[in-house]
Design brief:
By secondary structure, the protein is an alpha+beta fold. The chain is about 40% helix and about 20% strand. Strands 4, 5, 6, 7, 8 and 9 form a six-stranded antiparallel beta sheet that branches. The chain has a six-stranded mixed beta sheet with strand order 11-12-13-17-18-23, sandwiched between helices.
């Protein structure tokens, strides 16, 4: 495994670190390779900072928390560097690491909070809750005898109450529809695997589809298993969906690219100030899909490791990139462990595609808000709707293996642009989603109709089930209960899409993501464009 983590840092976490830890980091870095002059300047700065802090502590008119002042100073210091150098407190680090490692310890449920009550959205297959018979739609009323309904529980508080080391126990009391009394479950926590490949299935007799949500520790194994499964089902063409994928481990991206690239080919390289941070990564292992058409789906939220895979396949003319320009996260962070269990992720190099393109988009030091609002700027400039508005730098011109011209300037620009389809979107539809009304309605509907729908089977559901007007009326009543006023004009605009989403979410509550994505993708504009292109892929001219 590479020692460098390639994780998305779009949301900067709070800073909690002591002066002593900061000094240790700075001196340690200096001693590793700095000059005497630099060391002297550093010590002057540290002395000045200590003096100011001491004066405030001793003589300032009001009482102050020194830790808060230090945190603010460190925050300001890091903001002068780049958008992805960040500090992660120990309490947040465990959660982030569990997401990348591909597992965590807990009771194994997905939940949501509707009307200040915790609802089980899905017990995870093979987890402790599923084994005990906890069901979709169950409402958690008490955790370890403490009432958690109607007391303004937050998602974070629920996670803290239910997660814990494997082998420990937690007691939950559940309200289940049709049962007169609360049901009590004593649950022994266990390791819960988290899958990073959301789904894989055959679209047609020849075309397979794999959706990768992030690049975690288990991603390569999951991807390879999916690849072999689809090949056994007759797959000759492959769609890899990286839309919305924020990245993750670098080496997992390299391994996946290696499955698709024949022979020894450059996948990605890094360039840093220190020679030890300059590396070149190649393919070389025999892959399971080195021949056959590959299409990669990307959008403005595809970042980091996703861009490495897309860039490598594009530069070697191995894959056709479909969608919209990717995020543009091409800075490499070195994780540095701190004494209190926290972590500093320090940018030490940049990623480049095989043709020499820097993946990192342009940023202005000290302008974090502007950097993270850049996606909105794309919306304002029209880039999400028109390929002519994509900002590329003409002077940054590169060529793929076959001589095609590709441009630098940040992110990976697609070979085939797909505009964002906003024709059915509305503020009312966004409100239905943001108030959790759609999730609440579909969880309850699936709970009531589960036995009937399961008996008929998924194929019958997907082919023949339709969302009736009465179902939509029931959903509207629920949204009004959730304090979202009805908007007839917006409803009419979004009705077709709302039906599709409702059907997809009902399927998810019964057949998990295997049921969700085939229905959801029927309205996804990037997926549908790739499917159209796949039919004539051999004749596509990318020059």
């Amino acid at each position: 495994m590479s020692k460098y983590k390639n994780s998305n840092a779009a949301i900067r976490l709070p800073l909690y670190v002591s002066i002593a830890v900061c000094v240790g980091i700075l001196i340690g870095a200096n001693m590793a390779g700095g000059s005497l002059a630099t060391s002297t300047e550093l010590l002057k700065g540290l002395t000045k900072f200590r003096q100011v802090l001491t004066y405030i502590e001793n003589d300032y008119i009001d009482d102050v928390e020194s830790d808060d002042l230090v945190e603010g100073a460190i925050r300001s210091m890091l903001e002068q560097l780049d958008p992805h150098t960040s500090y992660i407190p120990a309490k947040d680090l465990k959660i982030i690491q569990s997401q990348l490692k591909g597992n965590y310890e807990g009771i194994g449920i997905e939940f949501n909070i509707f009307k200040d009550t915790i609802h089980v959205v899905r017990p995870l297959n093979g987890g402790p809750s599923a084994k005990l018979g906890i069901r979709v739609g169950d409402k958690i009323i008490k955790i370890d005898s403490e009432n958690v309904a109607g007391v303004n529980m937050t998602n974070q508080k629920v996670v803290e109450a239910l997660r814990g080391p494997g082998g420990s126990t937690v007691t939950v009391e559940i309200n289940r529809t049709g049962m007169p009394n609360l049901l009590k479950f004593r649950i022994e926590r266990d390791v819960i695997p988290q899958h990073s490949v959301d789904v894989s299935y055959m679209i047609t007799e020849e075309i397979g589809y794999i959706k990768i949500a992030r690049f975690a520790n288990s991603t390569y194994t999951e991807f390879k298993d999916a690849l072999i499964k689809l090949k056994d089902q007759g797959m000759q063409k492959l769609i890899i969906d990286l839309t919305g994928n924020p990245g993750g481990y670098l080496n997992r991206a390299i391994q996946i690219a290696d499955e698709l690239l024949a022979g020894r080919q450059l996948v990605v390289y890094t360039d840093g100030k220190k020679e030890r941070y300059t590396e070149r990564h190649y393919s070389g292992e025999k892959g399971d899909f080195e021949e056959g058409i590959v299409m990669v789906l990307v959008d403005e939220e595809s970042a980091s490791a996703s861009e490495i895979v897309a860039g490598a396949l594009q530069d070697h003319d191995r894959g056709i990139i479909v969608g919209r320009r990717t995020f543009g996260k091409g800075l490499v962070q070195l994780p540095l462990d701190l004494n209190d269990g926290s972590e500093l992720r320090l940018t030490i190099s940049r990623y480049y595609t095989p043709s020499g393109r820097s993946i990192q988009k342009i940023y202005k030091k000290g302008s974090l808000e502007e950097y993270y609002q850049e996606s909105y700027s794309r919306y304002q400039s029209g880039e999400l709707y028109n390929s002519d508005s994509i900002k590329t730098i003409d002077s940054l011109e590169f060529r793929t293996s076959s001589g095609r011209i590709v441009h630098g300037g940040g992110g990976i620009s697609p070979d085939y642009f797909v505009p964002l389809d906003s024709s059915q979107e509305s503020g009312y539809l966004n409100g239905i989603l943001s108030t959790n009304s759609l999730q609440e309605y579909t969880v309850k509907y699936a709970q009531r109709r589960r036995e009937i729908l399961e008996r008929k089977g998924y194929d019958e559901f997907r082919e023949n089930f339709s969302i009736s007007d009465q179902m939509l009326q029931d959903l509207i009543l629920l949204t009004e209960e959730n304090e979202l006023p009805f908007d007839q004009r917006a409803f009419n605009r979004s009705k077709k899409l709302l039906k599709q989403l409702t059907k997809a979410y009902i399927a998810r509550n019964i057949w998990d993501d295997d049921g969700f994505y085939p229905i959801y993708n029927e309205q996804d504009e990037i997926f549908q464009k790739a499917l159209q292109l796949m039919e004539k892929a051999k004749d596509l001219n990318l020059n």
